[in-house]
Design the sequence.
């Protein structure tokens, strides 16, 4: 899986936005505030939020008191949606996608000579699906309210009981 800095920073910024929006009773949050709290370059955040806005994850407000708001509730905003809005699709294989003569995507192109898939292709492909499934099951609200820590503790307890 290729989770870049763009994906991590976008998730950090969206989580910060959700927290501040809740505390400010829905007021738009300035990117400069998020940049300062999360220690992320303002110009970098502007690029990320342009992508997030185009994908419908945030809405912008201009003028005094302007900034950004979540386009939907934090509980309805999946982490996978944020990552996919700013990153390439989550892929764990090194295989590419072949581009047809008219620019359209065609069948997957393998990473080996002649376009063949490597022996471990299915392993990495499934791992990528599992990671995407997990990120799709986690919302911004889950990150904010500590639900993930509870999930991890329950999972560890289940693993210890099974051992």
Sequence:
């Amino acid at each position: 899986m290729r989770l870049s800095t763009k994906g991590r920073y976008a998730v950090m910024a969206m989580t910060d936005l959700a927290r501040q929006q809740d505390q400010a009773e829905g007021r738009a949050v300035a990117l400069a505030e998020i940049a300062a709290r999360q220690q992320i370059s303002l110009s970098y955040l502007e690029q990320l939020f342009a992508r997030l806005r185009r994908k419908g994850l945030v809405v912008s407000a201009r003028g005094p008191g302007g900034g950004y708001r979540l386009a939907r509730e934090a509980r309805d905003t999946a982490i996978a949606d944020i990552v996919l809005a700013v990153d390439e699709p989550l892929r764990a294989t090194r295989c590419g996608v072949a581009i047809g003569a008219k620019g359209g995507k065609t069948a997957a192109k393998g990473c080996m000579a002649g376009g063949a898939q490597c022996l471990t292709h299915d392993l990495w492909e499934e791992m990528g699906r599992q990671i995407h499934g997990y990120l799709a099951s986690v919302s911004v609200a889950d990150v904010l309210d500590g639900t993930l820590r509870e999930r991890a503790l329950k999972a560890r307890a289940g693993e210890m009981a099974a051992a």
